[in-house]
Amino acid sequence: MSVPLCPVVLAMLADRPQDRGGLARELVARGLTVQGAADLTLERLRLAGLVYAAPRTGVFRVTARGRRELAFQRQVSRKLARLAA
Known about the structure:
globular; mainly alpha; 3 strands; Arc Repressor Mutant, subunit A; 3-stranded antiparallel β-sheet
């Protein structure tokens, strides 16, 4: 089964900001992706304005826009789960 990484990565960073390498290792450990896909996902989220990397540390954090997007995604997931039940 393929898991869309953008929502997963956004949720992970909302729970705990981390650097690119740490995030990639966690995704690989969960069996969700490989290193290159994690980098691509972070770049996609950054370009969309949903996350940013702190200049000095390189730690990625969710922006206010990213938090709104994550709340929306969770709301849609709950509604879809109710429809499927």
